[in-house]
Design brief:
single chain; about 375 residues; Aspartate Aminotransferase, domain 2; Aspartate Aminotransferase, domain 1
């Protein structure tokens, strides 16, 4: 048997002809109308219980737009974590800010609030916690600390749609909350996409302009200037980061199934926990009050690379999300943070192993993964 980490083709096939119909609907209309984009934003905001949603063309764009929208400038300091992919740290760097990493909590694998507090300086202008693998960061404590110093919080929830804290979905806690619609995410486009949620109307308007050439959405559609026949009307410097109509239409087809997708992942996570209990495999844990979104099911094992090789021989696909941490990646080596700088993140990265999870996987396949991991890791 071969069990892939993820099978997006199988997931896409499960929607049948609805995806093709959505694409054809867009192609038959006005590609610049933003009809599908506007509907997706309203529907995704409602699903999260948020007031405003601004779609963009990737999760990275979402984080960058949010940073720029809260006024990040060159020389500002932005605090985040090193144990994620390049999007978060790259967005901070592209904003012109100084990148500051802090270590993580060993249970949730998200930002350590104690490390965050120790890293704050008068130049700190934003905090970017990451909801790692789908486990929300300690957002209430982070918000309380940020409020004390008047610092905005940009939550990177790209891995965590549907995750809850005390029964409330992530998406309304932070100044802005960023999501990814990447191909392998819970809600995946065929290409790429992302979204920023906010409760602040003025911030949402600024996000739309920053991601749309510095024009208002209405202005971009109409191309008629205020008081004169101007073709362009740029109110601020902006980027071309808008989500396209085809991706929006595809995401609208998939959004109604998102609750079932997340419920499936939660059931599989419980099954993994039960099946791997009493073994040498360290299964993920959650803080009290958290309902995990399970974008990734990441265990920790000794001699990880050897275990992974043995699993591959038996047809079990795994991944290494996200290792090594950012401070040990070539792109950020010049910042001068050697191994040992963030010991908790490094210890997790050395042992982590991502297993298959999601609606593509059957119970028979999951049982096979559990059986082979028990055999390969001991227990």
């Amino acid at each position: 048997m071969f069990v892939p980490v993820y099978d997006r083709e199988k997931v896409n096939r499960s929607f049948g002809p609805a995806l093709e119909a959505a694409v054809l609907r867009v192609l038959a209309g006005d590609l610049d109308a933003d009809r599908e984009v506007s509907l997706l934003e309203a529907e995704f905001a409602a699903w999260n219980g948020a007031r405003h949603a601004v779609s963009v063309n990737s999760g990275t764009a979402a984080i960058l737009a949010a940073l720029l929208a809260v006024g990040i400038r060159p020389g500002d300091e932005v605090i985040t974590v090193p144990n994620t992919d390049g999007a978060t740290s790259s967005a901070v760097t592209m904003s012109g800010a100084k990148l500051v990493w802090v270590d993580v909590d060993p249970v949730s694998r998200t930002m350590s609030v104690e490390a965050l507090e120790a890293a704050l300086t008068p130049r700190t202008r934003a905090i970017v916690p990451v909801d790692m693998f789908g486990h929300p960061a300690d957002i209430h404590r982070i918000n309380a600390l940020a409020a004390r110093y008047g610092i905005p919080v940009i939550e990177d929830a790209c891995l965590a749609p549907g995750a809850t804290v005390d029964g409330v979905k992530v998406g309304t806690f932070a100044t802005a909350t960023c999501f990814s619609f990447g191909r392998n995410k819970h809600l995946g486009a065929i290409g790429a996409g992302g979204c920023v949620l906010s409760q602040d109307e003025h911030l949402a308007a600024r996000l739309r302009m920053l991601s749309g050439y510095g024009e208002t959405r209405e202005r971009s559609r109409s191309k008629s200037g205020p008081g004169e026949a101007a073709w362009f009307w740029h109110e601020t410097i902006g980027l071309n980061q808008r989500l396209d109509e085809i991706q929006a239409a595809i995401l609208r087809v998939k959004l109604p199934s998102l609750d079932a997708n997340i419920a499936c992942r939660r059931a599989q996570a419980r099954r993994y926990g039960s099946g791997l209990a009493g073994t040498a495999v360290a299964v993920p844990r959650c803080r009290p009050g958290i309902d995990h979104a399970w974008r990734n099911y990441v265990v920790e094992v000794d001699d990880r690379d050897a275990v992974r090789a043995r699993l591959a021989e038996r047809g079990v696909g795994t991944n290494l999300c996200y290792t090594p941490p950012m401070h040990l990646q070539p792109a950020f080596a010049g910042l001068g943070w050697p191994r040992g700088s963030y010991p908790v993140a490094e210890a997790i990265a050395d042992r982590l192993l991502g297993l298959s999870i999601g609606p593509h996987m059957s119970e028979v396949e999951q049982d096979y993964v559990i059986e082979q991991l028990r055999a390969c890791a001991g227990g």
